[in-house]
Known about the structure:
This protein is an alpha+beta fold.
Amino acid sequence: xxxxxxxxxxxxxxxxxxxxxxxxxxxxxxxxxxxxxxxxxxxxxxxxxxxxxxxxxxxxxxxxxxxxxxxxxxxxxxxxxxxxxxxxxxxxxxxxxxxxxxxxxxxxxxxxxxxxxxxxxxxxxxxxxxxxxxxxxxxxxxxxxxxxxxxxxxxxxxxxxxxxxxxxxxxxxxxxxxxxxxxxxxxxxxxxxxxxxxxxxxxxxxxxxxxxxxxxxxxxxxxxxxxxxxxxxxxxxxxxxxxxxxxxxxxxxxxxxxxxxxxxxxxxxxxxxxxxxxxxxxxxxxxxxxxxxxxxxxxxxxxxxxxxxxxxxxxxxxxxxxxxxxxxxxxxxx
Length: 334
Ligand SMILES: [Zn+2]
């Protein structure tokens, strides 16, 4: 949404409150406590506040939203939100602090609230067709200029560790080819049987794919060994008859990235085997971190990833009123 359009649509605070009201209650006002639709009224002189005569309850239309505890005008929130979703790579809370004159902490918290809303999809999407799966590693203290443990000197570029084996945060992502939608998640360390901490283990990756994809679809990945069980038979086959062959869990194709190959021919259905789509998403992710000048704290990493996923998944409606309304809807947290 352009700034001109925003100003025309939401000229003042009252308009902002009414705009949100229409987004939250498209089918008419109901009580947030008992759900009653009749005998619920909005105060004329306090447009944020409603009263239900069934359960004798007074509530704000911003109850259970990211705006609930805020004392700032709601139109200010909307203005920042409009700007935040229009930018492909986001902007920093410092820029917001300088731009709007709010404290650094308030600016940071406001952007974090938007990220919470961005992750708050109504229903998580289940991917079908063909998906690309890949993992990447981001951040890590001193990653850009690591020192040698033995000599204490900066390591030359070719000796710096990359990927697995470093302390960087592991992120796993799946991209659906047709819709170009992405689901990405920080992968936590999990203790393995031998007591050593492990991450990106086969079961961990599989659980994530199971969670966000339909069974039996085509998965393309690199040749990392964590994926090798994807097309193996189910371990539990209780429901199968003795002579019945279990279907493969996923149709799995790999690209040998170590050999600097980035495509591996085509599948039987004529689809090119590659993972360039999800690789493109990683560059969007890293581009966003460049905006923030440093990789976010691992504690908040998932929030930033949620932001980039939202930007990717709303690519076709980028900068429209539809996108603004969608995020506004997601600001309701229950
Ligand atoms: Zn009620």
